Amino acid sequence: MTRKVEAWGKSGAAAERALVLAMTDRATMSGTDLSSSTRLAALGDYWLRTEVDASKRSTNTRQRYRYVVETFIVPGVGGLTVREATVAAMDRYLKRVTDETGAATAKLCKSVLSGMMALAVRHNAAPANPLRDVSRIESADNEVRALSFDEVRALREMLRVDQKAAAVDLPALVDVMLATGARIGEVLALRWDDVDLEAGTVAITGTVVRVKGEGLTRQDTTKGRKVRRLQLPKFAVSLLLDRSVNGVPGGPWNVLFPSATGGLREVTTVERQWRTFREKHSGWGWVSPHTFRKTVGTMIERDRGLADAATQLGHTSEKITQRHYVEVPDLAPDFREVLGRFAD
Q1: Which parts of the sequence belong to the Tyr recombinase domain (predicted)?
Q2: Which end of the chain is more exposed for a tag (fewer CB within 10 A), N or C?
Q3: Comparing 3-17, 62-76, 327-341, which segment has the lowest mean pLDDT?
Q4: What is the CATH code of the structural domain delimited by 12-133?
Q5: CATH class held by domain 149-324
Q6: Mind listing the pLDDT tens digit for each residue in 35-72?
Q7: Which residues share a beta bridge with 207?
Q8: What residue spans define the domains of the chain?
């Protein structure tokens, strides 16, 4: 199989240099020919081919890692050898990425570089993984904001009476997101085979992704890789029952929310349709489709606790739920009776 060698840079000249570097190193790299003199451009290519492409990682993850290697690592530090990839060198590079593109990108670069250098260590090309000792990449935590029950009711009513929103099926989409807490890509990937109306459940079995060279497709494995079956509230069961009788055909994918042509709907298309609706109604500028997932996490955490919220959202760690999906209330619980005892 022939694979194209690609590389990017901030300018045409930088991209050309990165491409030449990648092609040169790949030509000299074969088998397990790793040494302390191997350049990171070659190490990155070898890591992608042997560790990433051959793994069970999701298509999205494989594409993301390849993008990081080709867009950031090869142009940034691809010319360094494994020997030159010291803690200090990696630390300087990651701080530069943080300054130029943000902490999120820097963390991705750190993760990829750590995987690359771990491979070098396993091949005795490096004595230790320098990424273990670089400085912590700090990022400002965005405050989690969820909708209140009153806001949800108001928003659902606005969606119901908005003809353009109804024409693109936004009311039903939002209801299913609120009923499940699923990601928008997971909701768009729901098939009728995943729904059990008699039991009132739905299985989250996949997500919609765009794959380079293939286009829009349905990926059977979700982000957490574990199929989870969720129990639906009555309003969602009624909605899906009505759609099963009166809704549009699911097309070749047999999905609940097909596109206008009967195929899969793209996440970015729904996000654009949501922005169009949002711009017509003041006061909702902060609400995105992902807000509904945070709202579900917040409401379940308040009523049933953090563990149940994490289970509903499909998180492997409660810390993820707590940090990114649960709103911290402005008003503390009412402890006046307890604290009043100090003056008794």
Answers
A1: 142-340
A2: N
A3: 3-17
A4: 1.10.150.130
A5: mainly alpha
A6: 999 999 999 999 999 999 888 888 888 889 999 999 99
A7: 219
A8: 12-133, 149-324
